[in-house]
Amino acid sequence: MGFGRVHRLFLQVMLQRRSVDESEAQGLLGNCCKEYGEAMQELEPFIYEVNKELESVELALKTTVEEREDGDYPCLVLVNLMTGEVNRALSPFSQQELNFVQLLVAKLVTSNDGEVKMNTAINLCLLIKQKMKVSACEKLIERLVEDKWLLQTTYDSGDVYLSLSSLIVAEINTYLEETYADDIHKCFFCTKLTFKGYQCHQCKVAMHRNCAKKYWQTSKKANSCPSGSCDAYLGPVSSPASPSKRSRVMSDSSDEMEEEEESMEKEEEQKPVVQKRRNSLRRGKEKVNYEEE
Ligand SMILES: [Zn+2]
Ligand SMILES: [Zn+2]
């Protein structure tokens, strides 16, 4: 079956939304089929059909993973294949705004866990050549979050952090690979970029939290590095918040390791409470580091 009215309707919605969770995409397709009284279609072959049509206009639907604070979410994004660079990807923005976005992307990509504190992000506006007012910068960030280029997370401590959305990662993937080859990590399993996943401190293998979890569920060597020649221990299976942080902490400091292990034990019985505690612990620590800089 070729490109028809259901495909067109689905595409119209994706042009507006740009990014939807995969579970939602299936429901959306169901609604589009219903709209025209057509039989339900499978998402994967449907996307293939849409992409054949989109090729000539250099757009594509891509399935990818969004790394949110509470886990990895499979999602579907509509990307512009003509944009190899941040500049063109975000063409509705002024040059000054694009300069800011470039600085922010650099900061996020080179951070330990793919996150930058809101205040740190806003202060970047003082570093661009053509200086930007703080209020303008705040508005720009708001717009970037609204348009799904950035994810904004508020922790229990009240701290607000920004990270890259799956949409921007997919859209500027080539730019990231060319500009930050030494700073970015591809998942050992799905080969997509990961910023919040596990990273082996011995062999540098990286993997998404979800990909690691799936692997460890079937692997004989639970919680170990999947690389053939490396058996490094990478941490517990159920790790809601920033495991990369944990593996770094574990190799750096024995005091903090005990603290982490203690909270892991409690997590068994009281998961939500412990997660909150861990977030605030983690944020507290980062705050100190930040002020020392
Ligand atoms: Zn993966
Ligand atoms: Zn390893």
From TrEMBL:
Task: Give the location in the cell.
Answer: Chromosome; Nucleus
Subunit details: Component of the Smc5-Smc6 complex.
Task: Identify the main location.
Answer: nucleus
Q: What organism does the record attribute this protein to?
A: Scylla paramamosain
Q: May I have one GO cellular component term?
A: Smc5-Smc6 complex
This protein is called: Non-structural maintenance of chromosomes element 1 homolog
- Key words, A-Z: Chromosome, DNA damage, DNA recombination, DNA repair, Metal-binding, Nucleus, Transferase, Ubl conjugation, Ubl conjugation pathway, Zinc, Zinc-finger
Task: Tell me its EC number(s), please.
Answer: 2.3.2.27
Which PROSITE patterns does this chain map to?
ZF_DAG_PE_2 (PS50081)
Domain Phorbol-ester/DAG-type: from-to ranges = 172-225
Instruction: Give residue spans, biased composition: Acidic residues.
Output: 253-267
Q: Which GO terms describe its molecular function?
A: ubiquitin protein ligase activity; zinc ion binding
| Family recorded in the similarity comment | Belongs to the NSE1 family.
Task: Give the Basic residues compositional bias ranges.
Answer: 274-285
Quote the SUPFAM superfamilies the UniProt record gives. Answer: Cysteine-rich domain
Substrates-to-products reaction catalysed: S-ubiquitinyl-[E2 ubiquitin-conjugating enzyme]-L-cysteine + [acceptor protein]-L-lysine = [E2 ubiquitin-conjugating enzyme]-L-cysteine + N(6)-ubiquitinyl-[acceptor protein]-L-lysine
* Superkingdom of source: Eukaryota
